Every structure is written in C-alpha cells, then in structure tokens.
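Re: your question about Glycosyltransferase 2-like domain-containing protein

S., sorry for the slow reply, the queue was backed up all week. Below is exactly what I fed in.
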Amino acid sequence: MKEEIKLSVIVLTHNEEPVIADCLESVKWADEIVVVDHGSTDKTLEVVEKFGVKKIVTAPVNSNFSDRRNLGAKEAKGEWLFYVDADERVTSELKEEILSLITNYLPTGKAGKLLITKCVALAIPRKNIRLTKVLYHGGWWPDYVLRLMRKDKLIKWEGELHEQPKIDGDVGKLKEAFIHFSHRGSFEHKLQNTINWSAIEAKRMFDSNHPPMTVS
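Result:
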C-alpha cells in the first residue's frame, strides 16, 4: 500500500550551508521534505543529501521567490504544504499544534473527526532573533507569515519580493511560533542582500511607471 503523505515541508535554499542542517532537523517529522535550491555554490546540497532528503529540485537561474515557492508546491505530494525558510526553526510546540490540526482536519460538512478549523490556510507567528535577542517591538512581533495551507487550496504565490500566497478559502492563525534568525551572516552577506532587494524594488517601481523620486 502506498504511504499517505499528509504534510510536505518545502524549504528554499541558496548558500545556506551554516544553517540548513538545523532547519532540516527541526522538520524531520514531516512526511516529506522538498528542497528547492537556487544555485547554491557552497556545501548546502551536500548537507541536504547527507540529511537524507530525497526530493531536491533546482530552480531556474532567473526565478524569483514566488516562482520557487510555486515550484515547491508543484513537486510536493502532501495534502498540506508547510513552507519553512532555511533560517527558521520549528519548535516542538509548533510541531504538535500543526500535527494536531492536520490529523483532525476534515472539510466542512464531513463528520467522523473533530473539526478544529474550517480554515484552509494558517498564518504562523515568528519570533525574530537578532544578536541572541527576540525582537518584540517595532512591529517585529507577532510577525504573522502565511506558510501552512492545503495544497488544493493554494492558487499560487505572487510577488517578486515579500511574496504572498493566494488562497481559495478561509485563512486562520496558529498560536505557536517559528524561531527566525533574522539578518544573520557577515556584513558582506547583508550588503549583498540589500543590493539584490533594492534592484528588485527599483525594477518594480520602473515597471509600474512610478514617478521619479529625489533624495534631498
């Protein structure tokens, strides 16, 4: 009998060697892990393979974040999709909350099990950590991100930067949080990210015919 896949975890990677092992360790309880790699040149893929991930997908060079998340959804076999970034960790409390939800979930109108929620997608709070401290102020908490959803209710991910999923149905919230190690890495790593994001934002403004801006 073919094993049922309830939950697929999808992880996007690009040169994540220092953090990917801890990420994968925190989601090893999932039925399936799908890694979508975007041209890693370090030992990211070597670590992923040693961890035993069976489904590794290579994203096109010119793909954006939405493209990669959509590619992960296409390759995943689970009824539920759970997106976890390489610099995030899933706590045992969040794991138990998710497993309880998907184990007892039934679409509205069906009977036989406890219906915990009629929502088809769930936003999850994040504890953003910088320099070992959790950021609770300045809009950093609870920092909900929409990452858990039924595959058949995900229409698609949209947006080049700060991408969001388009969902067919009700969206709810979970109680337990991710751990997110924000702004990790060297100064050069942060600077390169800023340059990349600025280029994306500039292109978006140009494509939308945004009026010229000056800095005084």
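The domain at 7-207 is CATH 3.90.550.10 (Spore Coat Polysaccharide Biosynthesis Protein SpsA; Chain A). The chain is about 30% helix and 25% strand.

Happy to talk it through on Thursday.
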